[in-house]
């Protein structure tokens, strides 16, 4: 999957919130591509709401992975700001897509944030080593996606997510993070004076 993730004006300093906004766009695109891949493989989604539920699960996974990665790049206060901004921007995107489908009158941001908070706690129980989620981490995502999709071929969905979609998502996510924040040994300008927390 190709994404445009570099700024036109590379010399201009951006705030963590601006960078988080760009990464939110990237993560929504990554999740959308993974959903499309699942549908192209013949896995069942019947409604737009079902698709949005799958996107919600994929985004929650990506946000948590991003949070783990940021342990080595930002200090605690910066990391919290970054992840909150990322989550709120994704919640806005989710809300806008729900409004397009169901119409105005409800706030769909809070249900997205509520699920994200639950998944952040769930994923916190799993191993994350050498910059990658462990087996149980990926298996849990597979189960969450399976529960959001139709029953046809459901026993194979988790395998597809774990073996095919997760590696592809992580590859694109790492590129997006590196393009926004620099290589892992670099610090964004705003974070240069901070000390990274221990993982």
As a whole number of angstroms, the C-alpha radius of gyration is 17 Å
pLDDT below 50 for ≥5 consecutive residues: which ranges? 185-199
Strand order of the largest sheet: 1-2
Q: What is the general shape?
A: globular
Order of helices and strands: HHHHEEHH
- Structural class estimated from helices and strands: mainly alpha
How many helical elements?
A: 6
Protein model, in words:
With 199 residues, this protein is an all-alpha fold. The protein has one domain (16-182). The protein contains six helices and two strands, in the order ααααββαα. It has a two-stranded antiparallel ribbon with strand order 1-2. Strand 1 (128-129) and strand 2 form a beta hairpin. Helix 5 packs across helix 6. The radius of gyration is 17 Å and the shape is globular. The model is unreliable at 185-199 (pLDDT under 50).
Describe the structure using short key phrases.
two-stranded antiparallel ribbon, 2 strands, globular, mainly alpha
Summarize the model shown:
By secondary structure, the chain is mainly alpha-helical. 66% of the residues lie in helices and 2% in strands.
Give the SSE layout.
Layout: H1 16-40, H2 48-70, H3 76-102, H4 109-123, E1 128-129, E2 132-133, H5 135-148, H6 154-181
Antiparallel strand pairs: 1-2
Helix pairs in contact: 1-2, 1-3, 1-6, 2-3, 2-4, 2-5, 3-4, 5-6
């Amino acid at each position: 999957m190709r994404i445009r993730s570099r700024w036109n004006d590379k010399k201009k300093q951006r705030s963590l919130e601006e960078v988080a906004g760009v990464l939110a766009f990237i993560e929504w695109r990554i999740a959308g591509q993974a959903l499309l891949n699942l549908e192209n493989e013949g896995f069942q989604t019947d409604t737009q709401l079902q698709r949005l539920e799958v996107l919600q699960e994929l985004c929650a996974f990506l946000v948590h992975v991003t949070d783990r990665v940021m342990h080595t790049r930002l200090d605690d206060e910066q990391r919290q700001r970054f992840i909150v901004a990322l989550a709120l921007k994704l919640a806005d995107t989710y809300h806008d897509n729900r409004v397009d489908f169901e119409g105005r009158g409800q706030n769909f941001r809070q249900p997205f944030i509520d699920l994200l908070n639950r998944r952040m706690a769930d994923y916190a129980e799993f191993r994350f080593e050498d910059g990658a989620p462990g087996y149980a981490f990926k298996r849990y995502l597979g189960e969450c996606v399976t529960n959001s999709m139709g029953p046809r071929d459901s026993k194979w969905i988790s395998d597809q997510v774990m073996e095919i979609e997760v590696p592809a998502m992580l590859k694109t996510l790492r590129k997006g993070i590196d393009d926004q924040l620099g290589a892992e040994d670099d610090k964004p300008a705003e974070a240069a004076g901070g000390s990274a927390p221990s993982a």
